[in-house]
Amino acid sequence: MNRKPVHLAVYDTLADWETGHATAHLARAGHEIRTVGPSTSPVRSIGGLRVQPDLALEDLRPEDSALLILPGADLWDTSDDLAPFARTARAFLDAGVPVAAICGATAGLAREGLLDDRDHTGAVSFYLTATGYAGGGRYVEADAVTDAGLVTAGPTEPVAFAREILRLLGVHEGEVLDAWYRLFHDSDAAAYGVLEKAGAL
C-alpha cells in the first residue's frame, strides 16, 4: 500500500513522552514517520535526545502528508519560535489534512485561532484561556478529542492521544481499538488476547 508519510514536528524542548505510542504503533502498522524541524539542524528534546530532522518546515506541504503531529514543548509558552508550526497546522487543516496536537501545542493552535470553532481539550481549560483565544466554550473535559480533522490532548494522555490518531488513520477501530487502549493505558491483560487474535500486536 502506498501511503503518504506521517510528519512528526521536532523542535528544541519537545516533550519526549507525548508522541511515542502514536509514532511507534503507526510505524508498526506500515506508516512512514518523517520528522520536520524548524530547519534541518539537530534539535534536543526535554529529555536531552538529539534529533536530526528529515526536512525543514518550509519544505513541508500538506499534499505530501497523511498527518502532522505537534508535540508539546517549553517553547510553545516561552517564545514565538514555534508559531510557524501553528501556521502550518492551519494550512494542513485548510487543505483537509489532519493535525494532532498535545500539551503545549494546543496552546499554540489556540493562539492561531484553530480551536475557536472546534471541540478540543488540553492540559486544563484555564491554560488555554490564558492564550486569549475565543474557543473556551468548545473546551471538553476528556482525555483526548477529535473534531474536524484535529486531535487534541493534554500532557498526561499520550495513550489516549495515540488512540485518536490510530482511529483517525484507520489503523485500529471498534473492539480492537478499545483493546489497544485498555492494554496500553490500563494494563488490562484480557485486552492482549483480543489484539493477538486480530493480528494487531
The unreliable regions are: none
Largest sheet: 7 strands, mixed
Give the DSSP E fraction (strand runs of 2 or more residues): 15-25%
How many distinct beta strands? 9
Biggest sheet strand order reads 5-2-1-6-7-9-8
Shape: globular
Mean pLDDT: 97
What does the radius of gyration come to?
16 Å
Helix-and-strand structural type:
alpha/beta
Order of helices and strands: EHEEEEEHHEHHEEHHH
Number of helices: 8
Provide the helix percentage. 25-40%
How many angstroms separate the termini? 19 Å
Structure description:
InterPro entries: Class_I_gatase-like, DJ-1/PfpI, Prot/Nucl_acid_deglycase. Residues 6-167 form the DJ-1/PfpI domain. One of its GO terms (molecular function) is hydrolase activity, acting on glycosyl bonds. With 201 residues, the protein is α/β, with parallel strands linked by helices. Helices cover 36% and strands 15% of the residues. The chain is built from 8 helices and 9 strands. It has helices at 20-28, 75-78, 83-94, 104-111, 125-129, 158-168, 174-186, 189-198, and strands spanning 6-9, 33-37, 43-44, 50-51, 55-56, 67-70, 99-102, 144-147, 150-153. The strands form 2 sheets. It has a 7-stranded mixed beta sheet, with helices on both faces. A two-stranded antiparallel sheet has the order 3-4. Strand 1 (6-9), helix 1 and strand 2 (33-37) form a beta-alpha-beta unit. It starts with 5 loop residues before the first strand and ends with a helix. The mean pLDDT is 97.
